[in-house]
Automatic annotation (TrEMBL):
Reactions accelerated catalytically: a 3-(all-trans-polyprenyl)benzene-1,2-diol + S-adenosyl-L-methionine = a 2-methoxy-6-(all-trans-polyprenyl)phenol + S-adenosyl-L-homocysteine + H(+); a 3-demethylubiquinol + S-adenosyl-L-methionine = a ubiquinol + S-adenosyl-L-homocysteine + H(+)
Domain of life: Bacteria
Family of the protein in this entry: Belongs to the methyltransferase superfamily. UbiG/COQ3 family.
Gene (name only): ubiG
Cross-referenced CDD domains: AdoMet_MTases
Pathway(s) it belongs to: Cofactor biosynthesis; ubiquinone biosynthesis
InterPro entries, per database record: SAM-dependent_MTases_sf (IPR029063), UbiG_MeTrfase (IPR010233)
PANTHER family (alphabetical): METHYLTRANSFERASE (PTHR43464), UBIQUINONE BIOSYNTHESIS O-METHYLTRANSFERASE, MITOCHONDRIAL (PTHR43464:SF19)
Alphabetical UniProt keywords: Methyltransferase, S-adenosyl-L-methionine, Transferase, Ubiquinone, Ubiquinone biosynthesis
UniProt-recorded name of the protein: Ubiquinone biosynthesis O-methyltransferase
Protein's organism: Tsuneonella deserti
Residues given in the record as S-adenosyl-L-methionine binding sites: 50, 81, 102, 143
Length: 253
């Protein structure tokens, strides 16, 4: 991995963004993270949709071969808030040299065990991103994470500091709307689709707010793409941003 820049060293002195209660909550889910019918079932439904968006973003950014099965060959990737590796492993199969970082040590232990069982060489690290000497990466991803951090500005700045020159950031997060409050916090947690206590709606962030945070960190954000759900199509990419959305960002010119 490339050495971290001075900017990354500066970020490492920032206040922690991890909330201990959030890390503890997700750490308790580590044991069945890879069970598609377990507590992380919704993440298993989301993952193919996120990967489809990510693959398209990678092909556009690096003008790659759309038919290649390893479009990230020769590139490095960092997944922040990696959980037990649900995104790290596909990134490795797409050819990247992958590092995963998570606040919960239990998740990192589960991620290492699963990667070993899958024959994948992935570097996993537990702790605060801004305090870890991980270096810089061609691709940085952070999916469904920013809504759980204490200092969103510091977190985005830490992500920006990990992007290598010419690199790409991909993020996803719930939108703060009346519909997300009703469905993602109310209905989904009440029915067990999402573990109870996972979300605080007040911590959700709108696309406009995320755009400003990224701009403050020196990044230019794409137009967001929604993640929607219907009974007929299931979870899918959409122009509807009311529940969840994905964006890419690159260093500003």
């Amino acid at each position: 991995m490339a050495d971290a820049t001075h900017a990354a060293d500066t970020i490492s002195l920032a206040e922690p963004t991890i909330r201990p209660r959030e890390a503890a909550h997700f750490g308790k889910l580590a044991a069945d993270w890879w069970d598609p019918k377990g507590s992380s079932a919704m993440l298993h439904r989301l993952n193919p949709v996120r990967l489809a968006f990510l693959r398209s973003a990678v092909d556009r950014h690096w003008s790659g071969d759309h038919d290649s099965v390893r479009p990230l060959a020769g590139k490095t990737a960092l997944d922040v808030g990696c959980g037990a590796g649900l995104l790290c492993e596909p990134l490795a199969r797409l050819g990247a040299e992958v590092t995963g970082v998570d606040a919960a040590a239990e998740n990192i232990a589960a991620a290492r065990d699963h990667a070993a069982g899958s024959g994948l060489d992935i570097r996993y690290m537990a702790g605060e991103l801004g305090h870890l000497d991980v270096g810089q990466f061609d691709l940085v991803t952070s999916m469904e994470v920013i809504e759980h951090v204490a200092d969103k500005g510091a977190f985005v700045a830490a992500l920006a500091a990990r992007i290598a020159p010419g690199g790409l950031l991909v993020m996803s997060t719930p939108n703060r709307t009346s519909r997300s409050r009703l469905l993602m916090v109310g209905a989904a947690e009440a029915t067990g689709l999402i573990p109870r206590g996972t979300h605080d709606w007040n911590d959700f962030i709108t696309p406009e707010e995320l755009r400003l945070l990224l701009a403050e960190a020196g990044l230019a954000m794409s137009e967001p793409t929604g993640i929607a759900f219907t009974p007929t199509r299931g979870v899918h990419l959409s122009s509807d941003l009311s529940l969840n959305y994905l964006v890419t960002a690159v260093p500003s010119a």
